[in-house]
Amino acid sequence: MEKVCKDWVAEAFDSSLVNACHWKEFAQNAKTASAEILHVQNFTEATATVSEIIHSLKAKTVIAVGGDENPALQNLYKSISSPSINVCTDKFDIAENAPTADLGISTAEFGIGETGSVCVDTYSYEARLVGMLPPVHIVFLNASHIVENITTAFQVISRVFHKGHMGFITGPSRTADIERVLSLGVHGPSRFIIIAIENNPEGRLH
Amino acid sequence: MEAASTNRNIRKEIHKKLQDNIMRDALSRFAAQYPDARLHAYDNVESIEALRDDLRDMKRYTVDHIATIADTFESSVRERGAEFYRAADGKAVKEYLMKICEENNVHRIVKSKSMATEEIHLNQYLKEKGLHVRETDLGEWMLSVAGQRPSHMVMPAIHLNRQQCAKFFSQELKEDIPSDIPFMIQTARRVLRKEFLSADMGITGANFGIAENGAIGLVTNEGNARLVTTTPRIHVIIIGYEKLIPKIEDAAKILRLLPRNGTCQRMTSYMTMVDGPTPVMYKKDGKWIEEPRKVYVILLDNGRLKAANDPKLKEVYQCVRCASCLNVCPIWTLVGGHVYGHIYSGGIGAILTGLLNGLDDFSKFSDLCIGCRKCVTICPGKIHIPDLIDELRARNIKQNGLPLPEKAVFQNILTNRKIFHALLRIGSIGQKPVQSGKFIRHLPLFFSGMTKDRSLPAIAAEPFRDRTKKLFQKNPDKPVCKVAFFSGCNLDFVFPETGESVVKVLQDLNIEVSYPQEQSCCGKPVLGIGDRETAKKIAQQNIEAFEKSSADIILAACPTCAETLRKTYCELFADDTIWGPRAEAFSRKVHEFTSFVADAYKRAGRLAPTAGTHKITYHDSCHIKRGLGIYKEPRALLEAADGTQFVEMENSDKCCGMAGAFGVKYSEISLPILKEKIDHIKNTGAKTVAVACPACMMQLRGGLDQQAPDIKVKHIADILAEHLH
Ligand code: SF4
Fold it and tell me: Would the CB of B383 count as within 6 Å of ligand 1?
């Protein structure tokens, strides 16, 4: 899968900017923005968590990206698929199934403490579909990859953003266009779930 | 450039809007909630001011280097493989766009909100050309279905309620849609999803365009912009020059403020950056293919480059279109955006319209800024909106001349102090039979003659200037300093007793007071309408009058006068080598009454708060609070006054609604603003409301007279004078 940066950790991060100490503020702001946060220790735990979500959603079709870059994620995708659950990871498969998929799964590069946003690298078409078309979107985030604020986020971004498509997601899609009543899920997902991986020794999700 | 309308009757439109209870309810609820919600979003930043400074400085740098930054942006865009086109105006955009559509066999277009395309009426044009175009922002989509215009830049449909929305849904979808909000949202999702998936082309604007790498950024909550930049095989970006920024990191300077000010969020749900062609997939002959998306960037001028080269108006480049200036505008929050008549509403809307459509369109609704300066305190880009409006008013008068009645009054009467004052005296005799409880705010009073629905204010039988001789007999023998008093028209001809109080308070401080008899109106009424030439003549008379006095201090007890004397005179003569320095020397001596006295009382140990029982509240005049930055001093004086108990009212610094000629010309708007003020005063339970401004005093008395006659309105000078022993 094409990306704005193949390896954000090596090329964009630096420990003075990206640090787990901003987690608390991140989590608080993300929740305020109606994001759901789930903690797991590793990808084994993550597999169980995702399975539970699929079960509760009664999801039949899942579209997922990031497996090519990360074997652990690839395994996760393999283990959640079953005869009754179609997990699409091929890009054309994703394109074909996106309009009817029940769940999209992708990865985030880092979180932003000040706002509760996650930064997503959506260079590839399938990465965008996964986050926008299904009613529920899960992103995996390394819990120690958090920057303090928008300013530091852009310091990180400016190191690698030469071309492509990327941005921030802060909670689910929302509108207040009718009587300023907040409603979720107008064009994009109505649920945005961040699965924070606590213990990821190699520091990378992909 | 397209003019949106001709021969509008703006008063009729205002009248209609004021009858629209659905809209008025929505706006007043929003206006009440907005300020706190905004501040809450900033709770976790150290200094809002520092962020605003950063944004302003970055934008200022950009506009000063706009040509090179635009060149860099262009080459960045081209290097990445996108097409780039500079459009001089709307016509150029449309022609270029049609070419793209024809070359690429485009039939269906989805759009995400873009003010620039609204500005050039693009949708209408594309529809005429037989293209299928859909707005995808929910509010914009509903309005386009309803054939209405947005009334707010960020909340386009704020003037509608759910029943009205349901009606538009039903009309468009030809099925019966209940007025249930979640149901309507899901219906819109279903309908617009089809549009996204079948569109050939997506058109977006941009919240910023980065020269360094050619990326554009879009912020939305619904995610429609993210879909518009995802599904169609062609992406057209229409971006104005003012959206350019030099570096990637500069985007942070916008993004830390825009969502907080715009929607009271720390960040919107989606912030999307698009930089050059990225892959897109679509089905061709039943088979999925992937190829690079075609990206076209159109950089729109339409008057923007001219503004960039204008030393005053280039400030508009600091605007990030957050619309927060509307959210705090006492006029906008009453009448909504439609009466402004153009795409951009509110004060900033008047300015942008002046730049894009010309001064004629500007002048149609430039009156709707009352100069309260509330917007200046929150604008992320720190734009001085009322000052830019004044600038455009002045240019408009220069270009088109004054309307006839004003011309006669201003140029022949106001510049001649003797005639002017003689007329005021006649006014005091002539008014007796028509004297009523109604007042108007600013002298000169000729304005009231031009309006039929209000009577003259009560002009005192003996103006202040005739009382000075007697008053000054009580001047101290060995004064600590000498003050020359500038009364302004109101204290001279309407409230001479307050003028007397000023003198007494000063004499009690062992100060010698004088009154240069040749002083005249400060000139604010003519400045307000944009007649700077007349204002200069008046200013010269005043400067000369005070140069003859030997006083150390020039003191005004009207903040509007103080601001005009202190700030505006210097600006008026900025390029004048003779009058410039004279105005400077003059203005350095000018002080406002409450701040001057508070300072003296403090030094004399007379500013300690007292514990009394007489409840007193205070209304901040716009000019004293935001024009002069004085708000602590009047409160300190009131807290120290014997027997008083000071209580704050809600929104103490919101305009009382009269603002010079405005309150007379648009009494329908002025009166509801006054009513709200009076409700806030009543809620405090205070028996007295203090002001530091005679103009506010006039307005509040006019309102309290009828609605709460037992509450007294007093100038602080009067309160202090009462407490002298
Ligand atoms: S002028 Fe200032 S407050 Fe108004 S829309 Fe522009 S940036 Fe926002």
Answer: yes
